[in-house]
Amino acid sequence: MVLSSIAVLALSAFASLAQAKPLEAVASFTVIADMVSTVGGDRVHVKSLIGPNGDPHVYEPTPGDAQALKNADLAFVSGLHLEGWMDRLIKASGYKGQPVVLSEGIKTRSMDEDGKRIVDPHAWNSAANGVVYVRNIIA
User: Which of 10-19, 97-106, 111-120 has the lowest mean pLDDT?
Assistant: First the structure.
């Protein structure tokens, strides 16, 4: 029910763009691209920098990624240091905007990594955090 309500809000947020050409968006990886595409519908064209089964922790951007980002109207990232390469790519690409950080405002979770307790950067795996991601796309 909550996700349905958010989807309706998202569609109405994009309604004013109905007659305009689709926004060009870049998403850091496919989960983010799927969310942006679902929220934006035909009002947004989304390119995922990392393809299916790619790893956002260790991805190495290509010159094509820099070009896609430079040409984008909007850029979306998960945040929480998941895409450690993104700041470097933004600078190299000449992208003029600030990326939309979808994890902004979430309740973080912890996980163990190499014997240390760290913030879990896979925040979208929580349904409650997924709702926050969608709200940040709409905003």
Answer: 10-19
Domain count within the chain: 1
Angstrom distance (rounded) from CA 2 to CA 4: 5
Q: What CA–CA distance (Å, rounded) separates 45 from 41?
A: 8
pLDDT tens track for 58-111: 999 999 999 999 999 999 999 999 999 999 999 999 999 999 999 999 999 899
Could you tell me the CATH number of the domain that includes residue 107? 3.40.50.1980
pLDDT for 20 equals 86
Task: Tell me the whole-structure pTM to 2 decimals.
Answer: 0.83
23: which strand partners?
A: 44
User: 110: domain range?
Assistant: 2-138
